[in-house]
Amino acid sequence: MTSIHSERLAASAAAAKSAGIDAMLITPGADLRYLIGYDALPLERLTCLILTANGEATLLVPLLEQPAAAASGAGNTVTIATHGETDNAFAMATQIATDALGATPDTVAVADRMWAEQVLRFRELLPRAEQTTAGTVLRPIRMRKRPDEVDALRRAGQAIDRVHQRVGEWLRPGRTEAEVGRDIADAILAEGHTAVNFVIVGSGPNGASPHHALSDRVIDEGDPVVIDIGGTMADGYCSDCTRTYIAGGAAPADFADYYAVLLEAQQASCNSVRPGVTAQSVDAAARDVIAAAGYGELFIHRTGHGIGLEEHEDPYIVAGNDIELAPGMCFSIEPGIYSTGRHGARIEDIVVVTEDGVERLDTIDRELVVLGA
Ligand code: ZN
Ligand code: ZN
Ligand code: ZN
Q: How far is the CA of 304 from the centre of ligand 1 (A)?
C-alpha cells in the first residue's frame, strides 16, 4: 500500500502547488485515510498531516496515539512526529510547515471536515496566511477512483447485495421496522462489513420520507417497504443500495404503476452514463422519465451522490452540476417517488464510469420484490 500512498501524496502536493497553496493541514477523516492509510480517531488532541507544496509530509500525533499511527503503516510514507500533553501542538504543526517550506506559509488549506476550533487556532497562529479548504485540491483526485478502489467498491456492493437477497428472512407483516432493521444490521456485518452506516426500513407512509430510519410501526400486509442500507468494509470503502419490497399480499394499485415508471427512470439514468456527459444530465435522464409520467413533483431529491471512503462525496448527480463524468468516478443512481402520507419507492445502485460507458456495482434484481407471495 505504501507506493499508492506515496503517489497520492505526490499528486496532492503537485495539485496544491498549482493551486497556489503552500501547505495542507489534514486532520482525521477520509482525506487523511486516503492520503496515508491512517484511520485516525477524531479527538480533541490534535492529529494532523502537514503536507507542503514541495512534497514534504509529516504526521503530527499525540504521543499516546503514536502506536496506533505506527500500526497503520503511515510511517512508511511520512515522518511521524509526536506532541506531549503540555506541548502546543498547533504551534508545532505550523512550525513543521514553516521548516518544510523555509518560510511561513502564505496560503494554507485545511481539511474540509476540520473542527472549527482547530481552524481558528491555526488562523491565530498564522494570522497573515490565507485559509482555504483542502477539498479544492483533493476532491478532483479522490473523485477518480483507480482500479483497486473500484474493486473495493465492487466488493462492498456485493456484500450489501447479499444482505438484500436475504431480506425475505426478516421482512414480514406483524413485525416492526425496528425489529427488521436489527436483523438487517446484523446481516450487514455478517456479510462482510466492519461497520453499519445506516439502515432505513420505510414501511407504508414512512417510505415517503427518503431519510426515514426505523420506527416501531408494525408492518402491514401489502405495505410497500423501502429498504436502503449501507456499511463500511475493513478497507474503508462504503456500500449503499436500495430496493423496494412488498411485505406479503398485493401492492396498492397506483403503487405498481409508479414503480414501473421508477424502474424505467433508473434504467434510463444508468444508460446515460459515459465519459464526457455531465452529472446534471444523468439527473435529468431519470427526472425526465418521472416527470413525463406525471410524478415529477414527487421526486424530491437529487438522483445520486459520489461514494468511496465516504458514504456521500463528490460528484453529486444533481441539476446545476455541470462537471463532466470521467472514468473511475463512482456514484449512486437512486431516483425515488414519494407519495406523502401513503407510500414511496426508491431504486438505488452504485455505478462506476468506465472507459466507454458504465458498470453497475450493485447487480441484484431491480423488479419490485413481492415477499411471501
Ligand atoms: Zn440519502
Ligand atoms: Zn442509499
Ligand atoms: Zn445513496
A: 8
